[in-house]
């Protein structure tokens, strides 16, 4: 059974403690979302030993933070910093034979006003998206995958449905 805990609080102070709790509940994998500012070599080493210590594998790993979801930002420097963040996530995913994900345009916001969930990218945005995904895919190794997640919780103005993602791809 695969498990993603990005929206659920799992008891434990470390990834190992969380993985032990998951294993006791019958799970065999975990998704790791970590703020880029909090990522360090100790966390990396802990995840390297996670399966040996708990029987839980890392199925997804994603660094988040200030630049997450900013690939469509009008500021070039912010877009480039967002690419760097995603490249780091891809490198980690490659290490763990896991997937990672990215959002082209994503932000947390209050519930109101809602984004229009039916917007489509204009020609320039679509071209930039395709260029960006092609670049990021060059960093994905072997059989690993880069996940483009349709966001239907009004976090993004684009790619809110699976049909939108398929159409764009």
Question: Can you offer a commentary on this structure?
Answer:
With 169 residues, this protein is an alpha/beta fold. Helices cover 39% and strands 12% of the residues. It contains 6 helices and 4 strands. The strands form 2 sheets. A two-stranded parallel sheet has the order 1-2. It has a two-stranded parallel ribbon with strand order 3-4. The longest helix has 21 residues, at 76-96. The two termini are 28 Å apart.
Element-level helix/strand string = HEHHEHEHEH
Radius of gyration: 17 Å
Percent of residues in beta strands: 5-15%
Spatial order of the strands forming the largest sheet = 1-2
Largest sheet: 2 strands, parallel
Quick synopsis:
The protein starts with 14 loop residues before the first helix and ends with a helix.
Q: Which terms would index this structure?
A:
169 residues; two-stranded parallel ribbon; 6 helices; 4 strands
What's the topology here?
Layout: H1 15-24, E1 29-35, H2 41-48, H3 50-54, E2 57-64, H4 76-96, E3 100-102, H5 123-137, E4 146-148, H6 162-168
Parallel strand pairs: 1-2, 3-4
